[in-house]
Amino acid sequence: MSKNATTLVQCNATSCSGDQGYSGLVTVNDTNLTVSMTIESVQGKDESMWTCHVDFGEESKEAKATCLLFIFVPPEKPVCDHTLNESHVLITCSTAKVYPKATCRWNASSVPKVRSRSYSHPVSKDPVFIFNTTCTAVFPVTNQTE
């Protein structure tokens, strides 16, 4: 096992025990000796490299399987707003409850290049580790009569 790895749950042919936060997620089917883990309320901390070690035999032989768990939470529908003044138009686009941090892409035909762009990613107060994302773009206002 890796030096940085932590054993969360240990199972035998009939039951599992271990870390209180994870032991209830692992079940053993003693008919065919399969072990499975179900994470129902996924959190950002669950995004990790997961390894199942199977020890067998008297010579401490081991087999293992590894999988990388990625967490994705699609954003809510973005809300856009704009403010116009004499020199520029400020467009703000916000979305909530997204993981990992989102970025914005601004597309439009016949619009001058974006002068500045900024992002903010405050963490939501939701129990799952997710972000709210706000993107702003500034477009210069040009005199169309010249």
Which secondary structure elements does this structure contain, and how are they paired or packed?
Blueprint lengths: L8 E3 L4 E3 L1 H4 L2 E4 L4 E4 L10 E9 L4 E9 L9 E6 L3 E11 L17 E5 L10 E10 L6
Task: Describe this entry's structure for a reader.
This is Ig-like domain-containing protein. It comes from Lymnaea stagnalis (Great pond snail). The protein is mainly beta. The chain has 2 domains: 9-69, no CATH class; 79-140, Immunoglobulin-like, CATH 2.60.40. Helices cover 3% and strands 44% of the residues. It contains 1 helix and 10 strands, in the order ββαββββββββ. The protein has one helix spanning 20-23, and strands at 9-11, 16-18, 26-29, 34-37, 48-56, 61-69, 79-84, 88-98, 116-120, 131-140. It has a 4-stranded antiparallel sheet, with no helix packed on it. It has a two-stranded antiparallel ribbon with strand order 1-2. A hairpin with a 3-residue loop joins strand 7 (79-84) and strand 8 (88-98). It is rod-shaped. It starts with 8 loop residues before the first strand and ends in a 6-residue tail after the last strand.
